[in-house]
Specification:
The protein is an alpha+beta fold. It contains 8 helices and 7 strands. A hairpin with a 4-residue loop joins strand 2 and strand 3.
């Protein structure tokens, strides 16, 4: 404990392996043993918890989460009982190499994120002879293969994994836009519509995932995919793809008014 808190005090963050069986909430809490690294960026002695960022409480969403000390202790005791080591990796936010200040770096990273979504197409990994669809091109590719995928996929878990590969960082982008407003890089009045776009995207993706999960659950029971509902899912995914593009373009235009 002293090692972790001392490193946090020095400005480091940590990845620590924790058995999620001992979490106070979540899918695995008190049900399944699942060892997974948790990202710890701080701690609060008054509340007796680590401050963490999680993507497994609700898959596909990065969320701020308080991990109680007692949950961490219980996990450590479990590892000790099994004769296993507790893996901790320390890290630090990359220091700017160009001499730019934090605000300039954040603007550059935001621009890179938007252009990556819009411009990245197919990437070829020569060593393994594999093709990867990057950015919004990955949604276009999935739309083209969705009929075949649905016809040949029986397990809902496989579909969930596939869906979670897509853009799911709307809450992060909301925090980023608000940060840039606070730092004077964006005007509050012009940023508000963008915040509304990302909020709507976040909500629409959640609704879409639930509808598609229900669709697959029904398919597994009946053994037959409802083609009308499948077509509607494809249409809704195409609409989400357009909304993603519109948000990325809006963000870029705020960062660079000359962007066309």
């Amino acid at each position: 404990m002293s090692f972790i808190t001392s490193k946090l005090d020095e400005g480091y963050c940590l990845f620590a392996s924790v058995d999620r069986f001992y979490y106070p909430s979540g899918r695995e809490a008190q049900r399944f043993h699942l060892v997974h690294p948790v990202f710890i960026y701080g701690y609060d002695e008054t509340r007796g918890c680590f401050l963490t960022i999680e993507d497994c409480i609700l898959p596909g969403q990065m969320e701020y989460y308080e991990l109680p000390y007692h949950s961490f202790y219980a996990s450590c005791d479990h590892f000790h009982g099994l004769g296993q080591n507790i893996t901790v990796t320390i890290c630090r936010v990359k220091q700017p190499l160009t001499g730019l200040g934090e605000r300039e770096v954040m603007v550059a990273e935001a621009r890179k994120m938007c252009t990556g979504l819009l411009d990245q197409g197919v990437f070829y990994e020569e060593q393994y002879d594999l093709y990867y669809h990057m950015g919004l091109d990955s949604l276009d590719a999935f739309l083209k293969e969705m009929d075949v995928f649905c016809a040949n996929t029986e397990e809902l878990s496989l579909y969930k994994i596939r869906m979670l590969q897509f853009q799911q960082l709307h809450l992060r982008n909301i925090h980023l836009v608000r940060y840039l407003v606070e730092q004077g890089e964006l005007a509050s009045s012009t940023a508000e519509p963008l915040l509304n776009q990302y909020t709507k995207l976040h909500d629409e993706w959640n609704r879409y995932r639930q509808k598609s999960f229900i669709f697959f659950a029904a398919k597994k029971v009946s053994g037959v995919a409802d083609q009308v509902k499948l077509q509607r899912l494809k249409e809704q995914l195409s609409e989400l793809r357009d909304m993603e593009r519109e948000a990325a373009v809006s963000f870029l235009m705020l960062l660079d008014p000359t962007y066309v």
